[in-house]
Write a sequence for this structure.
């Protein structure tokens, strides 16, 4: 009996019991569709994180003050040291020291309450230089960024993040209006366009940017410590060279070795890999659950195939009496199980793809469908059908024709 | 075809040769001897009935004749070939080529049309779809059911279903037709109908072995073998 003939027989048997075949496939349908969806969710989240991190500014290095070690040998927490200063920023900006650095934006950061009449809103005041706008790849939705003159004179001007602006000025254009910070009136000269990059702990759209000189006067601090220095490399290819140069410059300036470095430099890659590894854990977890449902689906196929063998014991007996060899019977049942697996896999993949298209409008989370994941899922479905079909098929093949025919 | 017809009319070829066939079933520690040494010869073109009450070993003999089982002891030659010790796969090929079964329960597959049911043995013989359909159609014509080819068994009467089963037994041109209580599930009219068909087939040279417990059915055959307690009594 040829494979084509066997395939036709198996297909006819599946069609003859439509409802049962559908229920048998259900486990595999659910398993495959959830695999396609979870993998899609994981990939979608990775894409999202990547675009968010890219939105922070490409070719970006972020230098942060490191941990401080007191005279008693007690090591402070990350970022606790006042070890990063304007002098460091100037050193990095020196083309002869760091030729692959394009721009440098030093930044201070304090949390302050801004008031507009009776409305007040606590936000992050960032004191920086004119290069910040370029280094952070930010654009303005209205107004302008502060100028070099305003920076050198410490003018009372502020550029608001889009969220901050809408919190303080529910109506009208805030540009030209005044907000008060610690009793100092600041003129709003611009509003930043939405960055789209936000996480729970840092909303890049809830910020008030002022000249660094103004920020130092506002806080009344004489310290010239910086919260961070944003460094833009000349291109993404020179990012690692820039990293080396900045690192070397700061080690020399602070007179420390790399093991006792009092600063740290984060790259987008580092941020990306941290975010991705978190995502990967989630994806693996979800895919694990999906794999278990696939296993359950496979056992379902085996269960129904065993029932089918028992139910069709007379048919098997008759086929054997008419000349079907044990091999032919085994192939018939194996192929039937495989067909159920593949059909279930195909339906599951279709549901997964449709779900991937529909889901983003409900959960505000991108889902990307990956062709290799679908191909793998179909392969797994076929494997499940074959794997869990082997036992029922060999049971059917082993039946003796007399016992099978005698059964009534 | 003509040579075939000639050899059938001569009727000297031995189809079945049983020599000291014994069958013992072991159930736990108790061994039951279902057949205690059967010797029999059936030649081509014969119409033989095997009759016996239930428990006489008649079913066991039918299973061995039909190559559904092998004897514990003794020799069984079917169409000149010793089939006493064959493997399951070889027995399947012998059943396919040499034996046409007709069962009490008809045993037609309910999801297939009459034509596809008749063609089923040819599927396992490896015959192509086109030739299969032609041969199955001819076999249905032979039993007078050409116009029912596309009906499913559920749409046919009991007598018609048994005729389809006979057509299925004929389609491979086997050495013998082995009918196990073929009228057991039929009313008297259909029974007479099916027995008339067997008579007709016999007249055209077919070898028929009919197993029954009814004397009037056995009386239709040319020769009757009586089995009792696992032995033939002539």
């Amino acid at each position: 009996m040829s494979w084509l003939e066997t395939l036709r027989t198996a297909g006819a048997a599946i069609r003859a019991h439509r409802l049962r075949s559908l229920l048998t496939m259900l486990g595999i349908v659910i398993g495959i569709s959830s695999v396609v969806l979870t993998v899609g969710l994981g990939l979608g989240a990775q894409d999202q994180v990547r675009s968010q991190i890219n939105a922070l500014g490409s070719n970006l290095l972020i230098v942060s003050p490191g941990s401080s070690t007191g005279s008693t040998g007690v090591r402070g927490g990350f970022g606790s040291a006042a070890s990063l200063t304007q002098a460091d920023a100037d050193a990095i900006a020196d083309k002869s020291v760091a030729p692959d650095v394009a721009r440098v934006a030093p930044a201070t950061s304090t949390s302050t309450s801004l008031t507009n009449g009776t409305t007040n809103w606590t936000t992050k005041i960032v004191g920086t230089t004119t290069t910040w706008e370029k280094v952070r790849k930010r654009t303005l939705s209205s107004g302008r960024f502060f100028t070099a003159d305003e920076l050198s004179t410490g003018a009372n001007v502020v550029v608001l993040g889009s969220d901050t602006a809408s919190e303080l000025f529910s109506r009208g254009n805030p540009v030209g209006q005044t907000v008060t910070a610690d009793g100092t009136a600041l003129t709003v000269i611009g509003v930043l366009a939405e960055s789209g990059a936000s996480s729970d702990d840092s909303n890049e759209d809830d910020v008030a940017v002022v000249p660094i000189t103004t920020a130092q006067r506002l806080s009344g601090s004489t310290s010239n410590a910086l919260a961070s220095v944003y460094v833009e490399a000349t291109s993404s290819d020179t990012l690692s060279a820039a990293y080396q140069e900045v690192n070397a410059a700061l080690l020399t300036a602070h007179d420390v070795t790399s093991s006792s470095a009092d600063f740290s430099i984060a790259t987008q890659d580092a941020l990306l890999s941290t975010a991705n590894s978190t995502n990967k854990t989630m994806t693996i977890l979800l895919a694990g659950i999906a794999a278990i449902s696939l296993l359950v689906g496979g056992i379902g196929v085996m269960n129904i195939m065993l029932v089918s063998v028992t139910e069709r014991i007379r048919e098997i007996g008759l086929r054997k009496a008419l000349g079907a060899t044990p091999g032919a019977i085994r192939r018939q049942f194996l192929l039937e199980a495989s067909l159920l697996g593949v059909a279930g896999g195909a339906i599951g993949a279709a549901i997964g793809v449709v779900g991937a298209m529909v889901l983003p409008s409900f959960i505000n989370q991108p889902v990307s469908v990956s062709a290799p994941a679908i191909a793998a899922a179909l392969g797994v479905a076929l494997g499940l059908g074959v794997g869990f079909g082997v036992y029922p098929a060999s049971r059917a093949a082993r039946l003796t024709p007399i016992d099978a025919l005698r059964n009534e | 075809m003509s040579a075939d017809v000639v050899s059938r009319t001569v009727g000297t070829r031995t189809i079945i040769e049983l020599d000291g066939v014994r069958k013992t079933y072991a159930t736990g520690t108790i061994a039951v001897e279902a057949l205690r040494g059967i010797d029999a010869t059936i030649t081509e073109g014969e119409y033989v009935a095997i009759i016996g009450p239930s428990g006489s070993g008649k079913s066991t003999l039918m299973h061995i004749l039909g190559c559904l089982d092998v004897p514990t002891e003794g020799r069984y030659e079917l169409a000149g070939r010793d089939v006493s010790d064959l493997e399951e796969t070889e027995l399947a090929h012998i059943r396919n080529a040499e034996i046409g079964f007709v069962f009490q329960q008809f045993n037609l597959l309910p999801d297939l049309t009459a034509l596809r049911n008749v063609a089923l043995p040819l599927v396992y013989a490896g015959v192509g779809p086109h030739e299969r359909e032609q041969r199955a159609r001819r076999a249905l014509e032979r039993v007078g059911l050409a116009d029912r080819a596309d009906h499913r068994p559920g749409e046919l009467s009991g007598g018609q279903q048994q005729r389809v089963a006979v057509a299925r037994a004929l389609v491979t041109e086997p050495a013998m037709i082995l009918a196990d209580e073929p009228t057991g599930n039929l009313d008297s009219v259909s029974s007479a109908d099916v027995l008339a068909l067997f008579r007709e087939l016999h007249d055209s040279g077919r070898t028929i072995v009919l197993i029954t417990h009814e004397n009037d059915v056995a009386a239709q055959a040319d020769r009757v073998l009586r089995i009792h307690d696992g032995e033939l009594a002539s």
In short: Chain A has a mean pLDDT of 83. Residues 3-52+273-406 of chain A form one domain. Chain A touches chain B through 25 residues (CB under 8 Å). The CA atoms of residues 25 and 365 of chain A lie 29 Å apart.
